[in-house]
Predict the 3D structure of the following.
Amino acid sequence: MSSIVLRSRTISNNFSSKSISQRGLCSGVVSSSSDPSKGTITSSQSILSDQSTPPPPAPKVAPQVSGGKIWSFVKYGLIAGVTGTTGYAGYLSYKCSCEEVDHKAKALRAAASYAPSEDASAIDKYGGLLYSAAMTVPAKALESYLDLRRLVEEHLLEYTEPTSDKLLPDLHPLEQHVFTLVLDLNETLLYTDWKRERGWRTFKRPGVDAFLEHLAKFYEIVVYSDQMNMYVDPVCERLDTNHCIRYRLSRGATKYQDGKHYRDLSKLNRDPTKILYM
């Protein structure tokens, strides 16, 4: 009887220990699964931390060769060359005439057309070719300068020189003995005055009509003025009602030099010994 009781206690104790162990196991499982997010995050983080590798180092950029210095050297060299060429061209324009520059350019032309002799060595021929090529550019530049200068001077001559080398037509054969009387318009035949109240006014000199009528019998009368044609023609029309003045010359027939207009009597197509200027 006592053995039966002892066996039952042993079974009950074993059963209670099994139940306690099962409860502990269940509670451990529950506690471990009670916060799944933490476990997941922790495990994922550990996996990532274990599997991640450090980023590759940035590739080393090879140092680029800076072309700024080369470009600046070329730029300043070109500026210096253009400035020197312009200054030399200005010096030639101021100091030398076009014919003198053309005479000096003959040496450059000869150098540009240099050709070594047939019996020269290969080195001499090569050196001659290099010399000729080096002189070709300055020679071409000088030729262009001469062409441009001639063109500019031709245009300037239209304003600085009289319009013709013969400002007056030829005299009739029967009038070769007649003298030519050249008169200025302003301050000779006319008088111009200015006042604040009325502005500019032009007056005839006293006795001008009688003067012209009398001298027209003995001289060829020419009015030579430095005023514009649009001023000379209408004034002469009102001044010379009897047509005693044979020819009228205005500013276009003068020579412009140093800011002034000069009357070039050598262009009148008359004998200089028979010209009277008043």
Q: What stands out?
A: The first strand starts at residue 179 and ends at 183. The CA atoms of residues 266 and 272 lie 7 Å apart. The helical segments are 2-33, 36-51, 68-95, 98-112, 122-160, 208-215, 229-239.
